[in-house]
């Protein structure tokens, strides 16, 4: 638990904070003078921060879970109607669950990439349009609110929350290890496997493709990179890899090896099976285009192939790994 906090979670948030600060500075610059160059700079900063978010989104336990950080940050698809309504209402309560899908990175995607077909038209909405000032204010508010939430989470990992998390040993329900394991598997199953791949492709419920439900819908060419980054972050966390240094440390892999967890049928180490399955899923990304919403209506099969490989990862972790570690799954 100490290794996970000090060498993975906290350094990841520190790195993310750098990208978030750059996003905030770029937004301030754009709002002060909406120009083509500053729009491009803002978009680049948003993209970098969004990519960095994929590396911390899996830490949805402790303070992040308590304050609902995920829901304020990356619930998609965005509600364009709610965003436009909130622009008109500066006092709109963004803490309400009803406004989860009107903020975070999906809302910023809409505000800087999807307001109009051309950059010139988008810039007009921030300069000459009657609601230009309100629109800029909402853009800045979303970023400011998110910075505040991130600061709360970062502070928690340096204070009493850190020591409480580390000292909460054991595997029973409510222990740090149990909460962390559930949050980790839930993130992979629900938000990577299903959210990024299964729902848009129709593979989750065997339905028609839903290209409007992809992540970063308005940016168009970012969905694959976001999904790959999130998937790799989960694979690294399983290995216990320290953030930024790629140094191996104690994690799920070493835990499974220490208790000699093996597959009942083959006798192979369970950690090796899970690692191999992560790699098998990762290779399936090669069949995906950068633009998910464009590829899905034409050829959804590569997404379905990836989904089923990821489903095997879920099975090995949610059933076999938790059983070996005596962890109870507490989410449904």
Characterise the protein shown here.
There is one protein chain. The chain is mostly helical and 332 residues long. It is 63% helix and 0% strand. It is built from 15 helices and no strands. It has helices at residues 2-32, 36-53, 63-66, 69-73, 80-88, 104-114, 119-125, 132-156, 160-167, 176-201, 223-239, 252-258, 270-283, 292-295, 301-324. Helix 1 packs antiparallel against helix 8 (132-156). The longest helix has 31 residues, at 2-32. It starts with a helix and ends in an 8-residue tail after the last helix. The mean pLDDT is 97.
Give the C-alpha Rg.
Answer: 21 Å
Give the SSE string.
HHHHHHHHHHHHHHH
Helical percentage: 55-70%
Portion in beta strands: under 5%
Structural class: mainly alpha
Mean pLDDT: 97
Distance between the termini: 25 Å
Largest sheet: none
Helix count?
15
Morphology: globular
Low-confidence stretches: none
Count of DSSP E strands? 0
How do the helices and strands line up, and which of them pair or pack?
Elements: H1 2-32, H2 36-53, H3 63-66, H4 69-73, H5 80-88, H6 104-114, H7 119-125, H8 132-156, H9 160-167, H10 176-201, H11 223-239, H12 252-258, H13 270-283, H14 292-295, H15 301-324
Helix pairs in contact: 1-2, 1-8, 2-6, 5-8, 6-8, 10-11, 10-15, 11-13, 12-13, 13-15
What's this, in brief?
By secondary structure, this protein is an all-alpha fold.
Q: Any key phrases for this structure?
A:
mainly alpha, globular, 332 residues
């Amino acid at each position: 638990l100490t290794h996970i906090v000090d060498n993975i979670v906290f350094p990841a948030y520190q790195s993310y904070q750098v990208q978030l600060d750059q996003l905030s500075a770029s937004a301030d610059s754009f709002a002060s003078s909406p120009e083509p160059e500053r729009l491009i700079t803002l978009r680049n900063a948003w993209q970098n921060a969004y990519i960095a978010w994929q590396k911390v989104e899996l830490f949805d336990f402790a303070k992040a879970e308590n304050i609902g950080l995920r829901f304020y940050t990356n619930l998609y698809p965005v509600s364009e109607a709610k965003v436009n309504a909130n622009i008109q209402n500066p006092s709109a309560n963004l803490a309400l669950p009803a406004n989860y899908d009107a903020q975070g990175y999906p809302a910023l995607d809409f505000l800087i990439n999807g307001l109009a077909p051309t950059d010139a038209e988008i810039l007009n909405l921030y300069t000459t349009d009657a609601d230009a000032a309100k629109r800029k204010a909402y853009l800045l508010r979303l970023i400011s609110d998110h910075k505040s939430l991130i600061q709360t989470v970062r502070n928690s990992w340096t204070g009493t929350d850190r020591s409480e998390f580390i000292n909460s040993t054991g595997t029973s329900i409510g222990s740090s290890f149990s909460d962390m394991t559930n949050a980790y598997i839930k993130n992979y199953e629900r938000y990577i496997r299903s959210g990024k791949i299964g729902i848009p492709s129709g593979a989750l419920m065997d339905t028609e493709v839903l290209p409007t439900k992809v992540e970063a819908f308005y940016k168009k060419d970012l969905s694959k990179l976001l999904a790959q980054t999130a998937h790799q972050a989960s694979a690294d966390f399983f290995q216990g890899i320290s953030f930024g240094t790629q140094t191996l440390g104690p994690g799920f892999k070493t835990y499974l090896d220490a208790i000699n967890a093996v597959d009942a049928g083959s006798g192979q180490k369970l950690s090796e099976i899970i690692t191999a399955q992560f790699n098998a899923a990762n290779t399936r990304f090669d069949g995906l285009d950068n633009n998910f919403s464009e590829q899905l209506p034409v050829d959804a099969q590569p997404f379905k192939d990836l989904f089923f490989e990821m489903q095997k990862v879920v099975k090995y972790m949610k059933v076999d790994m938790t059983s070996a570690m005596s962890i109870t799954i507490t989410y449904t």
